[in-house]
């Protein structure tokens, strides 16, 4: 019995150490994010999280953060091949979704990926990728009505759409207000789960005044 307890205790210690190592790596990424300023920094951060994902194949969050930061890098770099970046992000999203299906945060990533492809040639792509973006946001809202990020992303997208096509600052303003209303009570599931967007929503709302 003592041997059994010793073995169980050893496994518990090993599991705790493994979890701590994973959490430490993730938190280190959050620290790197605070220092990231340009496209190259976000590209490097995406690669950092992708390495964590390769080591922690049962965790969806590293795939999520890798995809998110590659997306930010592509948006920030005017010369980036956004279709190539979108394909890379789509692969990471698929891996995250295989672990964590029906997740609002992942659908937010899908919306951003669609918008990234749309901006390559808005005139010829808006029907295809605009529809994909709208569907992804609608699904995110359905899955997690209290999540503020779908409203933030929808507002950010519609803010840049002409009023004749259903966009404009007036519509975006209401979405940013809704996002901030939800941010007031939103709590991430853990310290590692997504918790970004409040400052961005505040800045964008101010730009709509």
List keywords for this structure.
209 residues, mainly alpha, 9 helices, 0% strand, globular
Mean pLDDT over the full residue set: 92
How many beta strands in the DSSP annotation? 0
Oligomer: single chain
Number of helices: 9
Radius of gyration, CA atoms, in whole angstroms = 19 Å
Apparent shape: globular
> Proportion of β residues?
under 5%
Task: For the record, give the distance between the C-alpha atoms at the N and C termini, rounded to a whole number.
Answer: 70 Å
Textual characterization of the structure:
With 209 residues, the chain is mainly alpha-helical. Helices cover 76% and strands 0% of the residues. It has 9 helices and no strands. Helix 5 (104-118) packs parallel to helix 7 and helix 8 packs antiparallel against helix 9. The relative contact order is 0.08.
